Amino acid sequence: MDLLSVRAWEGRLVELRAAAIQMQSVPGDVSGNLDRADATLARCRDEGVELAVLPELFNTGYCSRGDYPRVAEDAEGKTLAALRDRSRRWGLWVAAGYAEHHAGHLYNSLAFCGPDGSISVYRKRHLVFWECTRFRKGREPVIAQTPWGRVGFAICADMIYRRVWSDYRGRIDLAVVGSAWPDFADRRSGRPNWLYGHLGPLAGEIPRIVSQDLDIPFIFANQCGETETRVPLMPRIPDRFAGRSALCDGRRSLPVRAGAEEALVIASLRVASPSDRGASPCRSTSPSVLAGWSSTSAA
């Protein structure tokens, strides 16, 4: 079997080798961020990874002062061109957050690239803080078909909301989330913010909770490194991203989780097929996805 085929069956579960890429993105340095991500995707290829997830806005960096109108891209931009090339040449499915320009609007989006050249695009539905003044809110869940089953997507704060997972319950077999979740703590003293400090640790807990609740694998890729968190009516917090990227396997095993620094988290996840869940297959809701996928071995 090739890399896009089922690797193993454990009862009615399909094994998927997956990776969460925890990286530090430099705000505004699209070329440099792409190069750093590309090097890690090459490591994924060498490790036999079949699905890799990059963080929210990995190519532009996540920053309240970012010039997103300048760096946002459409489907023909260099970011998606690079991801599609790697996906096709290496037989690797890639999910990655980027600033999208579409139909005259800016979106905080996540692209899911398949080895056949297909792209599903999810747009963040729950914007927070300064994002509300930069991006347009997404409106729909997105479900993409893969050789392992149906994949549903969210971006960072989306995963807090019950509605997001209610939309996906019983309709997906794997959850993918890209994030730029901060610690909400002063990086110099380590002191949590008095109002939002309780949110930082949730970056590591929500993926586990949702994975167990829906009993599906969950891939969570977060940014790391220094940042400034800007919240309304409060001074900027000299913060850092929370890290804690994780691969969760439903109720079957404990999460595999990163710390606070750059990391490549790889694990084998077991995905139940739609028929084994008693639900009929659901076609992708993304308007840009192609029908089917390649079964060609990676070069």
Account of the protein in words:
Helix 1 packs parallel to helix 3 (78-90). Strands 1, 2, 3, 4, 5, 6 and 15 form a 7-stranded mixed beta sheet that branches. A 6-stranded mixed beta sheet has the order 7-8-9-10-13-14, covered by helices on one side. Strands 11-12 form a two-stranded antiparallel sheet. It is 18% helix and 29% strand. The chain has one domain (9-277): Nitrilase/N-carbamoyl-D-aminoacid amidohydrolase (4-Layer Sandwich). The longest helix has 17 residues, at 30-46. With 299 residues, it is α/β, with parallel strands linked by helices.
Question: What would the keywords be for this entry?
Answer:
7-stranded mixed β-sheet; disordered N terminus; alpha/beta; 5 helices; 29% strand; Nitrilase/N-carbamoyl-D-aminoacid amidohydrolase; disordered C terminus; 299 residues; 15 strands; globular
In brief:
This protein is of the alpha/beta class and 299 residues long.
| CATH C-level category | Alpha Beta
Instruction: Note the overall shape.
Output: globular
Helix content: 10-25%
CATH architecture: 4-Layer Sandwich
**Residue-averaged pLDDT:** 88
In whole angstroms, how far apart are the ends? 14 Å
Strands, total number: 15
The whole-angstrom Rg is 18 Å
CATH fourth-tier homologous superfamily: Carbon-nitrogen hydrolase
What count of structural domains?
Answer: 1
Q: Helix tally?
A: 5
Largest sheet: 7 strands, mixed
Topology-level CATH name:
Nitrilase/N-carbamoyl-D-aminoacid amidohydrolase
* Structural class assignment: alpha/beta
Indicate the proportion of strand residues.
Answer: 25-35%
